[in-house]
Write a structure and sequence with these properties.
Blueprint lengths: L4 H4 L5 E2 L2 E2 H17 L43 E5 L2 H21 L4 E5 L6 H14 L6 E5 L1 E3 L10 H8 L11 E2 L10 H14 L5 E4 L21 E4 L2 H6 L13 E4 L2 H5 L4 E5 L5 H9 L17 E6 H4 L3 H4 L11 H15 L8 H6 L3 H7 L3 H13 L27 E6 L4 H15 L3 E6 L9 H18 L2 H4 L1 H15 L7 H21 L7 E3 L3 H4 L10 H14 L3 E4 L9 H15 L10 E4 L14 E5 L1 H12 L11 H15 L6 E7 L3 H5 L1
Parallel strand pairs: 3-12, 4-5, 4-8, 5-7, 8-11, 11-12, 13-14, 13-16, 14-15, 16-17
Antiparallel strand pairs: 1-2, 6-10, 9-10, 17-19, 18-19
The structure holds fructose -6-phosphate.
Fructose -6-phosphate binds next to loops.
Length: 699
């Protein structure tokens, strides 16, 4: 395979007074200036891409993007963006290209210099590279690596150090010589940091520069740890971490207070000097920042936006992370669309929100002047008719009967009326998720007489603060001392071992199994307390403690067949009429995404028995980005009292480091959104979307 010269060759050949690399950069700058001058609110001039309806693009990733024709969508996206179905597919495609690059260069006796990232994003890429090494003989003996960053103050053997991460996730499993691995050292004394950073830059240069730099993106838009304010020519240096970044790392460190405050990171300038850049992003929590970085203006407030000015930079994203890009969110602004019912609803909701006018007040000119005149033209309907039609569509999502209304006409209701009562299965990835996403709806389902089963997929023990386990152990010891009875005596050893295990692991260490077990049990109690706030009894709940969670830690979970079988058993035994589930668009490394995967794989194993109707599956959103109004198929209004009750349920999770009390604010925001569209004014709304299994959607 012939590689693009900008990638394979170390720039050396002089050309028109400069080298090839400079020339490409120069051209790319011209290219970017042109793009930036385009008015992105203008209507498109030409028709374009198939990728709006079929988002998956399997083109070459490591490809020079220097000078080229602008496609319609690139009027919005100022950096080449490839969208794959999921993170596994995208990572496999990238790994194959990296492997080809390494092989080609190794065959020529040359090193490949890779810049590497940590965090959850590159994990599937590293897994695939390891597989290629094991199964297809890919050798790393001719590879030199430079990692982007390291937390300052963490020793190498700390479980959350990036040094340790890289050993665990890649280096321990491939044949890379140790001396070819470079990671900033988070333990150098403060006064030596400057020299250490200079030395890091020098080493990159001596290695011939980075052939390829892999990047993730933080929610602040950082690449490496270049937080807002990092200049585009910033060098490797010490940086203070942004509050959002520290919050995002809180689960790894058992609480935000434990997350280091600073880090050593390659600078934006250092990164941009790589000959090729691939920024990966997965899950809908990244959707907003991906859009800003790809479509917004270049700014030091979002360091990833500087990739727009690089001659060979690609964003490689999954569908969830791509969902905010204009071509998916407002496809009619990018090219012609098929005006089916869903597209019309989306455009009308968008227009109403854009103009801050209720749907029923939109007029023909509003459509024409905002690029959706084609919607009217497609059916030769007037705004008035389109408005009513779509007002009704939104209106009909609202129901006080999440399990269907007995005896009612189902024509326009989100959930069917029969059977009644229904067997309703609610899957909660971590114990608090179901309450966060649908606490009010759980209460209603129970109140309306359905047989509700709330199944907690994982124990959630990693979220429980040490202090909760310590308190339990201390109470046991107190009992021994005050009660003096032999009965309590036997508990001394247990309590002592919990206290000493927590002491021994220190602030950031890993809990041994006994502590995780205790924390899981503490959470069970809280989850049941919350259940009773929502009207559920003890036997309405079930704890699965899926093994992937028990054996893993954040960002490093791995789903196993046993997890899928567990969910499959629940589906078989409970035989639900409706299922509520979440995690479909979450960060793929999160317990939510893996719990969803366990469900969707189990779903495929369901016996296709034509005598029993297929259950309806409803998606809810827990900690993830909420649904947008046009995505909602069922909206359950809540009264102020119901909202208070939901908050009370979430508050039961007292031992959890970061219980999400903003959930109620999100429900209120959604009610305000519906109100602004012209619907009735409710205090709060919980939202659901119908799940269409991938195969059914594509078949
Ligand atoms: C890690 C790094 C960071 C991460 C970013 C996203 O070396 O440099 O920029 O890539 O914070 O983190 P994840 O992948 O965990 O979402």
């Amino acid at each position: 395979m012939a590689w693009p010269p900008s990638l394979v060759e170390t720039p050396a050949t002089p050309e028109k007074g400069g080298d090839v690399y400079e020339e490409i950069c120069r051209r790319s700058k011209l290219h970017c200036v042109t793009i930036r001058n385009i008015d992105t609110t203008a209507r498109p001039l030409q028709h374009t891409p198939a990728s709006m309806t079929n988002p998956d693009e399997t083109g070459r990733i490591l490809e020079a993007s220097g000078q080229k024709q602008l496609t319609q969508r690139e009027r919005f996206e100022k950096v080449r963006t490839l969208v794959h179905r999921d993170s596994d597919a995208a990572s496999a495609a990238l790994a194959a290209e990296i492997a080809a690059l390494i092989r080609e260069r190794s065959a020529a006796g040359r090193q490949t210099v890779l810049g590497l990232a940590t965090g959850s994003t590159p994990v599937p890429l590293y897994r695939e590279l390891i597989r290629l090494h094991r199964e297809e003989g890919l050798s790393f003996t001719h590879v030199t690596t430079f990692n982007l960053d390291e937390y300052y103050g963490l020793p190498r053997d700390h479980p959350e150090s990036y040094y340790r991460f890289m050993q665990d996730q890649l280096f321990d499993h491939v044949d890379i010589p140790e001396h070819q691995i470079n990671i900033p050292d988070g333990t150098v004394p403060l006064e030596a940091v400057y020299d250490h950073c200079l030395d890091y830059e020098r080493r990159i240069e001596e290695a011939g520069g980075l052939d390829l730099q892999i990047l993730g993106i933080g929610r602040t838009g950082h690449i490496g740890f270049n937080e807002p304010g990092s200049a585009n020519d910033s060098p490797t240096r010490m940086i203070t971490l942004d509050r959002v970044t520290r919050q995002d790392a809180a689960a790894d460190f058992m609480g935000v207070a434990n997350v280091p405050r600073s880090a050593i990171t390659m600078g934006v300038g250092t990164i941009l000097e790589a000959r090729c850049l691939v920024l990966m992003a997965w899950g809908n929590n990244k959707a907003a920042i991906v859009r800003e970085a790809a479509e917004g203006r270049m700014t030091d407030q979002i360091s990833a936006s500087f990739l727009q000015n690089h001659p060979n930079a690609t964003f490689l994203v999954d569908r969830a992370a791509a969902s905010n890009l204009t071509r998916f969110r407002f496809p009619w602004l990018v090219g012609p669309v098929e005006w089916d019912a869903a597209m019309k609803k989306r455009a009308v909701v968008w227009l109403s929100q854009k103009l801050e006018k209720p749907i029923l007040k939109l007029v023909d000119e509003d459509y024409n002047e905002n690029g959706v005149g084609e919607l009217l033209a497609s059916t030769s309907e007037a705004a008035y008719e389109v408005n009513i039609d779509n007002f009704n569509r939104v209106q009909r999502t609202i129901t006080g009967w999440p399990g269907g209304k007995p005896g009612a006409d189902d024509t326009n209701r989100p959930e069917r009326s029969t059977p009644f009562p229904k067997r309703i299965l609610i899957l909660s990835p971590e114990p608090a998720d179901a309450y966060i996403g649908m606490g009010g709806t759980i209460d209603r389902l129970k109140e309306q007489g359905h047989y509700v089963k709330l199944v907690f997929q994982t124990s959630g023990n990693l979220r429980v603060a040490d202090i909760a386990a310590l308190n339990f152990a201390r109470i046991l010891l107190e009992m021994v001392q005050t009660d003096q009875s032999a009965e309590w005596e036997s508990q001394t050893a247990y309590a002592g071992s919990i206290i000493s295990s927590i002491d021994a692991k220190g602030e950031f260490g890993v809990d041994p199994e006994s502590v995780r077990k205790l924390k899981g049990l503490i959470l069970r109690g809280e989850a049941r307390d919350a259940a009773s706030v929502c009207g559920l009894k003890y036997h309405d709940t079930r704890f699965l403690d899926l093994p992937f969670y028990e054996q893993g830690r954040y960002r490093r979970f791995r789903l196993d067949q046993a997890d899928v079988e567990n969910i499959s058993r629940v589906l078989d035994e409970f035989a639900p009429d409706s299922v509520f589930v979440t995690g479909d668009a979450s960060d793929p490394s999160s317990p939510q995404a893996l719990s969803f995967k366990a469900f969707s794989n189990a779903w495929k194993m369901l016996k296709n028995d034509s005598t029993t109707p297929v259950p309806n599956v409803w998606l809810y959103r827990g900690r993830d980005r909420s649904f947008e109004a046009h995505e909602i198929d069922m909206a359950i209004p809540m009264s102020p009292d119901q909202l208070d009750q939901k908050v009370e349920a979430i508050r039961k999770f007292m031992s959890v480091n970061d219980a999400d009390l903003n959930a109620s604010a999100r429900n209120q925001e959604l009610a305000a959104t519906y109100d602004a569209l012209g619907m009735a004014e409710y205090e709060a709304i919980e939202a659901f979307r119908r799940w269409v299994p991938e195969d059914a959607a594509e078949g």
